[in-house]
Design brief:
Length: 572
């Protein structure tokens, strides 16, 4: 039988499937168990094996010393191999251990997330069509629940009498991120706005709640966050991709995680109870700028009496959110792995989300959507409203102005209107097809707002196009339906289709946001909406009485000088 090359060494076992693990097989040498390397003699003194027992033989200068040198070299080489094996094993364990820990941490974050159905069954809005580059806007409904149904929430506000009551959605904001991710808008609806709430089915109890007309904050208790989303979609016509909901305890946790926000009041404020006005947030601040965190941040967001009304509170909330965004950007939180992990840990515990958003990666991706938007392109406002004639403590959406606001969101137009200019032919990409060779189909969609369509509107616009050189323009025989005018080109046309559409948009003075890519058209199609009933070219800005930005609380994200005025009874 074979013999060991070094006394007491023993055979060298190999790691099973080492090659599959990515380890280097050469680290184990070329020997096989009990055999010398190929082409060499066994290392014993003779063919029969190890030295004989008894006194060790004296080696002669002409041979024994040379054999001892080879043996020492082999021992040294094997020592190096043992070190290499140890290093390889350690690295493999580290790699596998790190990957395992990462997987387990991801599973941990996933387990934190509480999810619910996106809709409660009463939604019927349609997604906004993609823009000329195939991008679509993103709409997220942000909901603040006043639920006191946990000890943590009860401790932070409210009375024990409210435990077990259906929660109210006292904060409701729609975050709209433009398709090109260059701007964002946030619109709040006051909690006491009277609206039509559709029939909703509660996800947990499966109980159906009938449609009703009441204040919007009751929608949460009639079918959960999905019912709030359905109510918004029915009111605005805006398709909402996801919802995010947070309660009192979640606000405190998130505020601590982001490092708070800088807020400002013009006078000293204490939002405490008054003889005829019980309750209050108990916010106490000195005049000037203060960084609020944790429970104090919650007090700021809940303050209503000291800021005079729910409308003042909405403005204060917008100021807080803008400050949070400025802080996160200044901290490079969107690119700092440590900050991202800390925020992820808190966010997955603090937020409830619609089911299709319910993974750590999707929540992370959502945060990254805001990373590149300049602060001066983030605008926040409260819905234009009028007093409710049935109850002076309630409000209604202002006719005209509120409709114009919803139209801006549906058509993916920024609230600051910086991009709302007539389209210009782009220098990059293919040249547009010559006007006299470009087919354009015109559709009369002027009845999209529910009123009677304008007679022969498609023919009128077709004639205008021909006068501008588009000799192949035709009027469709059938009518369409659109509240806003769109110019759609076939998805299959690619960059050429976009260039052709932009040339028509420029000729008709259409804004670039009107240009859409669509899989539902086979030729360039101009659908004239109810916003363009008369005139040869697209109408200019809406009249002041339909301006959604007039006489509303509009806070720009870059404005870090905004201060809240304190209602006199709450100054100290």
């Amino acid at each position: 039988m074979g013999h060991k090359s070094v006394r007491g060494e023993g055979t060298r076992p190999r790691v099973q499937h080492a090659g599959q693990l990515g380890w280097d097989e050469s680290l184990y040498g070329e020997e096989t168990d009990g055999q010398a390397p190929s082409g060499q003699q066994p290392s014993g003194d003779g063919p029969s094996g190890p030295e004989e027992s008894g006194p060790q033989k004296q080696t002669s200068p002409d041979g024994g010393g040379h054999r001892r040198g080879r043996a020492r070299a082999r021992v040294k080489k094997k020592g190096k191999r043992r070190i290499l094996r140890w290093v390889a094993s350690t690295l493999a364990l580290l790699i596998l251990g790190t990957a395992g820990a990462g997987y387990l941490y991801y599973q941990h974050l996933s387990a934190n997330i509480r999810k619910g159905d996106r809709s409660a069954g009463g939604s019927n809005a349609k997604k906004t069509a993609a823009n000329a580059d195939g991008q679509t806007p993103l709409n997220i409904l942000l909901i603040g629940s006043d639920s006191r149904n946990t000890p943590e929430n009860l401790k932070l506000g409210g009375s024990k009498d409210s435990v077990g009551a259906p929660p109210l959605a006292d904060v409701q904001m729609l975050l709209h991120v433009s398709a090109d991710r260059k701007s964002a808008s946030v619109v709040s609806i006051p909690r006491d706005t009277r609206v039509d709430i559709p029939e909703c089915t509660d996800e947990k109890t499966k109980k159906k709640m009938p449609a009703t007309n009441t204040v919007i904050n009751e929608s949460l208790g009639r079918g959960g966050a999905g019912c709030v989303l359905d109510t918004w979609e029915n009111l605005t016509g805006v398709y909402i991709d996801h919802w995010l909901m947070v309660d009192f305890a979640g606000v405190v946790a998130m505020s601590d995680a982001v490092g708070g926000a800088d807020v400002c009041v013009k006078q000293n404020v204490y939002d405490g109870p008054k003889p005829k006005v019980p309750g209050g947030s108990h916010l106490r601040l000195k005049a000037g700028t203060t960084t609020v965190k944790g429970e104090q941040a919650l007090q700021w967001l809940r303050t209503r009496h000291a800021f005079e009304s729910d409308l003042g509170r909405a403005k204060a909330q917008h100021m807080y959110l803008n400050s949070v965004m400025r802080n996160l950007k200044s901290q490079n939180a969107f690119s700092n792995p440590g900050r991202i992990m800390g925020l992820a840990e808190t966010a997955t515990k603090a937020l409830q989300v619609s089911r299709e958003l319910g993974t750590p990666k999707k929540i992370y991706d959502l945060g990254m959507e805001l990373k590149g938007i300049p602060m001066d392109r983030i605008n926040m406002l409260t819905m234009p409203r009028i007093e409710d004639p049935k109850d002076k403590d309630h409000v209604l959406p202002q006719p005209g102005a509120a409709d114009a606001l919803w139209s801006l969101l549906r058509d993916d137009k920024p609230l600051d209107k910086k991009d709302d200019a007539p389209a210009k032919t782009e220098d990059k990409g293919p040249a547009a097809t010559p006007a006299d060779s470009l087919p354009v189909t015109v559709v009369n969609g002027t009845g999209g707002d529910g009123s009677a369509p304008t007679a022969k509107r498609a023919t009128t616009v077709k004639d205008t196009l021909k006068n501008k050189g588009f000799q192949k323009a035709t009027a469709a025989d059938t009518r369409g339906s659109a509240t806003t005018t769109t110019l759609a080109y076939p998805k299959s046309a690619g960059a050429q289709g976009k260039a052709d559409a932009m040339s028509v948009a420029k000729a008709m003075e259409l804004p670039s946001s009107a240009v859409k890519v669509s899989a539902d058209v086979t030729t360039l199609t101009l659908t004239v909406g109810s916003d363009w009933r008369t005139g040869a070219t697209y109408p200019k800005k809406a009249a002041d009485n339909a301006d959604p930005l007039k006489d509303v609380e509009n806070v720009n994200g870059a404005n870090d000088k905004e201060c809240m005025d304190v209602y006199a009874p709450y100054r100290w």
